[in-house]
């Protein structure tokens, strides 16, 4: 699959994510700050970079980690709405993404599902896809390509991804 974010962003994200999994608290804290800063400044770019990383990282651990982090970032409260008021719907970063970014994000996630060789990473992909699909439906954004892909996957024999759907 072709890259959707510049290589320089991918390289920077690789370093940040590598630092997030280190045992050194100071390095990890700085990496958390870097993630929050990047997502606050350019959320679409960094969320797409995380999704792309989930399909391209060298290790299962990093692909899984990027999927979990992506899901967490997508649905946390948007920076403009730090406190949730019960009378208002809770807005997340997902709600602020453009239609084009959401479509690209969905395409990357479907690619992850259909091409991931590791069952454990594929489970993380399914978890993320389910949350994105659920939140999309709640917001009136059905994900027709997911329906088509899951139907195709159920028609495949064992080993073709059927265990995911």
UniProtKB/TrEMBL annotation:
SUPFAM superfamilies: ARM repeat (SSF48371)
InterPro entries referenced in this protein's UniProt entry, alphabetically: ARM-like (IPR011989), ARM-type_fold (IPR016024)
Domain of life of the native organism: Eukaryota
Name of this chain's protein: Uncharacterized protein
Organism name: Ephemerocybe angulata
